[in-house]
Amino acid sequence: MRTNRTLLVTVVATGMMLSATVASAASQSLTITNLQGTVRIAQDLPCDQTVQVDTTIQSGHLDLAYQIQREGVLLDFARLDVFITPFSVEGNCDGVGASVNFREIGLKLASAVIFPGEPVGGLEDRLYRFRIPKEQFLLFESVLDDSGAPQPKTLYKRPSEDVTGLIDLGRNKSVQLHVVLTDEVQFKAGCERNRCLIDETHTGTTTSDVLAAVIPGPTPPIVSCTPTAPPGSTFNVFASDETAVVIKLGTFTLANEETFQLQETGQPGVRLVETSRTGVRHFQVGPGEAFVTATDTEGNVAIAFCK
Amino acid sequence: MREFLKSSGRRLSTGWFWPLVLLALPNCVLGNSGLPNPNKFNPGGEPLSTAVMCDIAKVPDPGNPGSCANLAESGSGMSLAHAAVALAQGEFNSLGLDFTPAATNSCNGSPRKTEFFEKFPDGSVVCLNCAQMIPAVYADGNAVCVAKCKELVGVGEVQPPGGLDAYCQANAHVSTNFDKTACYPDVCSVGGTPGAFEDPRRTQEKVKWSDFFGTTAVDNTLTRLAVTTGDTPADFNAGAAANLSQNITVGDAWIEFEVLDNTKSHALGVHTTNGGIDTNPSLTDMLFALDLNKDGNIYFLEHGNQVGPTAGAYTAGQRFRIHITDNNDGTAKITYGRLNGSCTPGTKCLEDPLVNQQTSPDPAYPLRVDASLREQDAQLKDVTMVRIITQ
Does B58 contact chain A (CB < 8 Å)? Predict the structure, then answer.
């Protein structure tokens, strides 16, 4: 028996916890691992039966690039892989039992999609709603079961409705994804030559509900600007964070633990006056500009005044 | 037939879970065909845990046969020339942009775009049983990519005007810096779905030193053996160059290094190579170079001459980068930077630019890493590079 069974591909809403890297190029890129969520499969069967399975997203990976624009965001789902937690379906009929064990169910976005997101709330919230036309969302499914076939059953499919979701590109980056697939499953049994005892096709309504999950972003960096002994116009800057940080005095980048000279003047702005033979840079700053900032890769900023 | 099925249905509906019983019967099919797949890719039998990384281009929009990028796409896509650096920094996009004159001339100044089936420059992860299928079924990684291309394009609604075979032969190949004769192990599940894996292409390539003059190398660290002859520019008379197989022929790249101490003088840079032995261990053939001098300061060199003021002091162990940015006209812009803190492969690391005052024209490809050392025991440590490796 070929159990080319693919009722499981109804993935609705995927909440993704992320351990992310953010890079800046023409657009920014975000890698999200540890996808979570639930999958509900409901498939009509012959004999007026329905099988319903609730399972979960076991693991996954999402790579997306994005470019925040004035009117919203341009999103690029460049890679999406999901593993669904394996499950078994079993039952019996008048004392005769049977079962199918799914060893592995993998889903992969077969074709990257680029689509716009529209802001929800204020632009500063960086929260966007999106809708991906179902024609553009091509999925590749690979299933291993206990049928003993040496090769997984694979097929391509598209959702039965537009994929919708919500993406948070603010501090707590997260993605919610809602995908619904509908399958036409053909059942044949007891076949001999051209006749089958059972030959029925059921619109396997595989409906799904998947949950979204969010984890907090990293804490902001810590930065200090302390006068060197004896106190005067020379300071030392120190910053730390879970990720790398950029330290700035005005538009000038400072090295971590750099010692520099600072002189307040009446002229606004930050200027590099000279670099000493020992490499100590001497800056002049305008009123109220004697402070440094530390920015981490998530865009979190900390400030320290040099006094 | 209908009557037969009806009667069968009545007869069979007595059980609670009759369909499952069917699973145990011979001649049974429980089928879901999915989308038509006339060119099904053959990955081999289990396990499908190895992978080939492929760049597979989508069929261009018939309404935009020239594939010219619009303004938004020009701002959001990634230059094809940026591929190796993007790999090393974990950057990606599914939209590649060609800024070469041939492309921009045909697009009224805009770049030509290529939409990939998966992220660029990493490539599509094509899972298969490599040991079983290469070379028995597919000659190499490129053949795998072509076969997968036929499947993917065949499933789609837009078919290439010139035919599927010709299209995939021209538009599918192994992705940036993937060796077409190899496969990556443990990338995919047994069933052939990609999982988490460490892409080895994110790790920088070690420079293989060659053409030694008064120097020696252990791994990718170069040391001057020759006795110091003086402290003038002419005394940079010992050196080496990277192996010719490591020429930088196209695209963005960088060379990264540090020095053992800041009381000796070290110059590292690039020259345009003619493919021959580098018989010049001095500074004079180095078109652009960074000099970490024995006075503890950083200097910029062009053709062996100092250009502009010092970029300030340096200390041993600080890592520097010489950046090569493709101008898309056969030449490259050279810039410099110093890493600020530790750096993890596959991430964009903090870097402080070292601003130089360039006076010479940008150098032409192919570029070769070139080094010169002045004092005995001067050492360029752990010299690495990122570049597009042409196969």
Answer: yes
